[in-house]
Amino acid sequence: MKAAICYAPQKPLEIADVDQQGPQAGEVRVRVKATGVCHSDWHVINGDWTLPLPMVLGHEGAGIVEEAGPGVTNVKPGDHIIFSFRPQCGRCLYCSTGRPVLCDGHKSARWGMLDGTQRLRRHGQEIYQLARLGTFAERVVCPAEMAIPIRTEMPWPQAALLGCAVPTGVGAVTRAANVEMGASVLVVGCGGVGLNVIQGARLAGARLILACDLLDNKLQFAKEFGATHTLNGKHDNVVERARELTEGRGVDYAFDAIGGEATTLQIIDAIRPGGTAVIVGMAAMNVRAPITPYAMALHEKTLKGTVYGSVRPILDFPRLAELYLDGRLKLDQLVSRTYPLDQINEGFEALRRGEVARGVVVF
Q: For residue 77, is the peptide bond before it cis, meaning its omega torsion is within 30 degrees of 0?
């Protein structure tokens, strides 16, 4: 079985044959049909996130269940599924209170199976799997609870994007921030996640959706996904413009879809008194942002984070698929390029240069 392996940061992924053990109790084997080229994987490749290596990367994907281990009841061979990169034990505090992406019911490391063992080896060496998945491979063995069944009508590249970029962006608006109809919204960063924050705001009925990026091609994407106004951060003052468009107050909600010191401070400054700023993009582990507690308290501003859009994958993934099939969710426009697995490094180069909304590896 072929997989794309990260052996060291700052090095291209290596396409190689690996040995895969079959699914054990509570696990499934899935034939991967499509997987997205995501910035989170790039964080591992360029060394922003320090994880144990070697590792098969990839966490945004979809495929067909080929085999189910003992005790699996939620899916069966032949089912079409989207991978959830967060497990859901169904028993812990967070699962019990409707916040399954924060599940802490499993104590094993997040780059192996729930029992702490590995399913991949090459030349006898264990290979880790990013987020217990590692979708940059022809097949994945993973915990069955991370396989969410969907309708068979979903095309594979679009289905794959429902595993990360789409729920992270849409959910940031609809689950984490609960943006209401008629609200004003700023989105900083118009990559795959930011575009889905924009269309989440559109679905929520926001009246003003201000999109900011440094690349004009990304701003054009933003208009297609529902932005009412666009700004190029290279030469536009984003905070001033946000206030000009809101009678001097600032926007109701601002989302940082990049993750960084400057962008975090920018969204705080851009919201009105009583407004909410949401960090969506995942920053490098060592990034810090110096906020001003006095101003936060004086203006009753809220700064919050969201992981995976605070979604409930079992409920939300099928609903997002329904929205796409009903013509209400833009996914076709997200798939800028597709690649075979052996061109995955080209996909990351295109991502790094900002040339795509989303690249997808297809099998």
A: no
Q: Assess if residue 106 is contained within a domain.
A: yes
Residue stretches of the chain with pLDDT short of 50:
none
Maximum C-alpha span of the chain: 65
Instruction: Note whether 7 and 43 are same-domain residues.
Output: yes
Strands 61-68 and 147-149: unpaired
- Active-site positions read 38, 40, 43, 59, 164
**Which among 361, 314, 335 has a CA at the least distance from the CA of 82?**
314
Q: Are strands 14-17 and 2-6 parallel, antiparallel or unpaired?
A: antiparallel
Question: CATH no. for residue 22?
Answer: 3.90.180.10
For residue 349, what pLDDT is reported?
96
Residue 137's DSSP bridge partners are 3
Q: What gap in Å lies between CA 169 and CA 309, rounded to an integer?
A: 6
- In the chain the first and final C-alpha atoms are separated, in Å, by 12
Q: Is the overall model pTM greater than 0.90, yes or no?
A: yes
Report the C-alpha gap between 271 and 292 in whole angstroms. Answer: 14
Provide the domain limits for residue 257.
Answer: 168-307
> Among 277, 321, 315, which residue's Cα sits nearest to residue 296?
277
- Ranges of H-type helices in 175-306: 192-204, 216-225, 238-244, 261-270, 293-298
Which segments of the chain are extended strands (E)?
Answer: 2-6, 14-17, 19-20, 27-37, 55-56, 61-68, 80-83, 120-122, 125-129, 139-143, 147-149, 184-188, 208-213, 229-232, 251-256, 271-279, 302-305, 335-339, 358-362
CA-closest candidate to residue 225, choices 255, 176, 191, 180: 191
Residue 284 has a pLDDT of: 81
The pLDDT of residue 286: 87
